[in-house]
């Protein structure tokens, strides 16, 4: 009988502590809504123990299931593909409005919808737009403390390494995730404190330089990204509006800020596969004019229909809401592994994101009205989708008062 993969008890406890203390920064009396596929429920249970130890008043676990998504895509009657469960989304919103924190455990199969009718997948994706519009502000505006983190799911691991056993694939994936989480350090929490401090220092350095725009040059890329008025670089931990301090993504290696939604021009080519809607898309190429992606295609001739559906969600979906800098020598990049998972792949590469800007990337953002945010150049959308553009061949200049200052050469910081 084939061995079943399990994360060891010590690692499970250390990861749970990391998510509660370093990721969420939970405070006494706060509730937690934790969502994960069934396979990751042992981690959710370990998180619940740590959450209750710090005084969490209630942990509510929500089950996600890829198999149910496939069943719906295959068997739902055509006229019901647009059905939604807004009632559940509104329940989430009510919990967050009441102060609950959010934890999402991710790691879906990148080939999930590969052999399914893509017109049905697009219809289902459209049905989910309204739900995203309801709940996305709680994270994009840092109203609540929230964390997204990966787990070594079997289908994900075997998609990365299809030629080995599921046990060996999961073991290999966990070995990499364990290192990415810095659980191989003597004191993981202290290691993250040190790492967060380094990210904060680099963000502070960029904030002092007050660049007006960034210029990206590399194979298939010549892109000018204007930065929003009052933009603010972030790296490491974030202070939510409720006062909790934590990492919204674990792991994280990025320094990021807010691009100006109207001031992006040029062309750019992705350097890592994108995974969206259960599909892998290689070689995305985009042309931007005055902030809008006027051309979007795969240079390999693949269909990008699921991505086009996402970017038709609203007027801001084809504009940028984030630009992030990650050196090619980052901890995750040195693993030399494409994960087919945005959370990990974006932390091995510079990246940009279509859609919603994060309010925290503007100074005094919590006090600014939505109109004022837009006037600063911050993009507004119901979607947020990252894609990777960095490599060892990427150069980046920062431009201020007409002067160009080298930030990256051959994928590495020059500052």
Could you please describe the fold and organization of this structure?
It is a single chain. The protein has 415 residues and is of the alpha+beta class. The chain is built from twelve helices and 20 strands. It has an eight-stranded antiparallel beta sheet, with no helix packed on it. Strands 2-1-3-4 form a four-stranded parallel beta sheet, sandwiched between helices. The chain has a four-stranded antiparallel beta sheet with strand order 9-15-16-17. A hairpin with a 2-residue loop joins strand 13 and strand 14. Helix 1 (9-24) packs across helix 2 (41-53), helix 4 (86-97) packs parallel to helix 6 (129-140) and helix 7 (154-160) packs across helix 8 (166-180). The termini are far apart. The mean pLDDT is 91.
Report the radius of gyration as a whole number of Å: 21 Å
Q: Classify the beta-strand content into a percent band.
A: 25-35%
**Average pLDDT value?**
91
Derived structural class: alpha+beta
Distance between the termini: 54 Å
Largest sheet: 8 strands, antiparallel
Quick structural gist:
It contains 12 helices and 20 strands. With 415 residues, the protein is of the alpha+beta class.
């Amino acid at each position: 009988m084939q061995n079943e993969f399990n994360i060891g008890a010590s690692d499970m406890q250390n990861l749970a502590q990391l998510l509660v203390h370093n990721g969420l920064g939970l405070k006494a009396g706060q509730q937690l809504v934790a969502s994960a596929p069934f396979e990751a429920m042992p981690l959710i249970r370990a998180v619940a123990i740590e959450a209750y130890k710090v005084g969490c008043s209630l942990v509510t676990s929500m089950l996600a299931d890829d198999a149910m998504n496939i069943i719906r895509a295959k068997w739902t009657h055509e006229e019901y593909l647009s059905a939604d469960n807004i009632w559940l989304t509104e329940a989430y919103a009510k919990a967050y409005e009441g102060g609950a924190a959010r934890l999402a455990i991710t790691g879906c199969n990148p080939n999930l919808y590969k052999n399914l009718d893509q017109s049905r997948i697009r219809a289902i994706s459209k049905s989910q737009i309204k739900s995203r519009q309801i709940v996305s502000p709680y994270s994009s505006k840092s109203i609540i403390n929230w964390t997204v983190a990966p787990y070594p799911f079997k289908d994900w691991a075997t998609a990365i390494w299809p030629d080995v056993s599921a046990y060996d694939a999961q073991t290999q994936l966990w070995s990499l995730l364990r290192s990415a989480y810095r659980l191989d350090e003597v004191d993981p929490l202290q290691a993250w404190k040190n790492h967060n401090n380094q990210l904060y220092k680099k963000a502070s350095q960029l904030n002092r330089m007050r660049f007006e725009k960034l210029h990206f040059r590399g194979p298939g890329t010549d892109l000018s990204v204007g930065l929003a008025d009052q933009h603010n670089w972030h790296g490491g931990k974030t202070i939510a509006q409720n006062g909790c301090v934590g990492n919204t993504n674990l792991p994280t290696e990025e320094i990021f800020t807010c691009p100006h939604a109207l001031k992006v021009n040029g062309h750019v080519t992705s350097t890592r596969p994108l995974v969206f809607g259960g599909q892998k898309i290689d070689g995305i190429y985009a042309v931007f004019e005055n902030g809008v992606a006027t051309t979007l295609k795969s240079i390999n001739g693949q269909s990008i229909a699921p991505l086009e559906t996402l970017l038709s969600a609203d007027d801001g979906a084809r504009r940028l809401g984030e630009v992030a800098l990650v050196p090619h020598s980052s901890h995750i990049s040195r693993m030399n592994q494409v994960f087919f998972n945005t959370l990990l792949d974006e932390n091995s590469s510079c990246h940009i994101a279509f859609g919603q800007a994060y309010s925290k990337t503007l100074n005094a953002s919590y006090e600014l009205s939505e109109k004022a945010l837009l006037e600063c150049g911050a993009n507004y959308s119901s979607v947020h989708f990252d894609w990777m553009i960095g490599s060892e061949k990427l150069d980046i200049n920062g431009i201020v008062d007409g002067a160009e200052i080298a930030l990256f050469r051959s994928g590495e910081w020059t500052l």
